[in-house]
């Protein structure tokens, strides 16, 4: 069963929390990735640029409208995701508990429905 | 297979007995492979329907439980194999898994059908399931109550309750909450929510008198089952003791409400008292601090002991409540402690404990009832009447309301 660990957190910068905290976070993420890889459950991972660099596309009266900024204007933003393949929710929770972003935000555990393999959608269970 | 021809009435009774004893066991077995509670309940309901039509004709099978399991399993397989399901790979894999689990059960001695109810209970009380729906889910999935009965007991519209249950079951299947009993390491974190939900089943009995008696009986049965299945969990035995001792006294009051101290101990069920006390002994762990349910059961045991000694040991009650408030400082336990202190020390001391409670006390019926009692003991009848009147307006139970109004009336004379 595939689960996506979705990280939400207030966006930090060198100026707001300091370069040292940022690099400590990156070190923690590096070792987390290595641990998931070693356990043989890592499917993929993606940490995102700050939401200020985001561009949102919506249809207005059938016409695409390009907008500066993220879809939702909230304090906590989508910061990154990791997809893991584990037997059940308890296993996913156990890995989510060890995710470094838990120290600076929230971790949402969402079961996958389908994903692409070789150009076709297949069940993620 | 030797079959006995029986009348329709007897068949109905066998089906009912089997349902009571086996419902949760069968649902747990059928739901575990794919985590699909709804499908398990539907196929089992179908199997019971079949039983009611074929048993009167062909006789009750030697092993009704395995008969029901087989019929339900076959139905489940048919559904899994149907076109709608075949498209989904996950369910196909689950079919094989399900077949593995149940195939080996065919024609087995019912005592050897594996009991997966514990795993099912841990699913119902999983931290990923909203706390408010855990008890209703247990009532339905493990004990077989229907959504309408549960809705009445929770004073919620039937449609809303059934929607909540459906959502929770979908969540169990889609998020894949595992049907497992947690290991030793996770047990301390997971067991309290299971016991809490079972306790919730029992507490319902007090809020709803109509459905209450059957819910209370089933909750006690569930608590004892859990304690037996876990074997060595002190708090599980303590909950079994608590519900058994409370049930021993519940048989007395009839239609009306009688406070504990006005009850006649001769009407209490001695057999249940002895049974509850034996469970409480199994919960004892010398040298280890007692848990919340152990303290609550011990409090019940002290009250029940009046049947033997003829008097209530208020000092021991005071000690137990002080310990309970220290580890579980709920409004209920703090009010109860204040009432007991009001007895053992002085009404003034009890009242000062009540005065120290947070503002939520204002909407808490037992607070006003306890206050009324202590004020009456001080001879402040007018204040006591006001407190009882307030308690009465907050009470949802007509029998309790009648009792409180009568107390107020007696004091106004």
UniProtKB/TrEMBL annotation, chain A:
Domain YCII-related stretches: 1-111
Short name of one Pfam family: YCII
InterPro entries in alphabetical order: Dimeric_a/b-barrel, YCII
Highest taxon of source: Bacteria
Family (UniProt): Belongs to the YciI family.
Name this polypeptide is given: YCII-related domain-containing protein
Organism of this sequence: Sphaerisporangium siamense
From TrEMBL, chain B:
Coiled coil ranges: none
Domain DUF6596: 190-283
BP GO terms, sorted: DNA-templated transcription initiation
Transmembrane region(s): none
Pfam families, per database record: DUF6596 (PF20239), Sigma70_r2 (PF04542)
Protein name, per record: RNA polymerase sigma-70 factor (ECF subfamily)
UniProt organism field: Sphaerisporangium siamense
Molecular function terms from GO: DNA-binding transcription factor activity
All copies of domain RNA polymerase sigma-70 region, residue ranges: 23-84
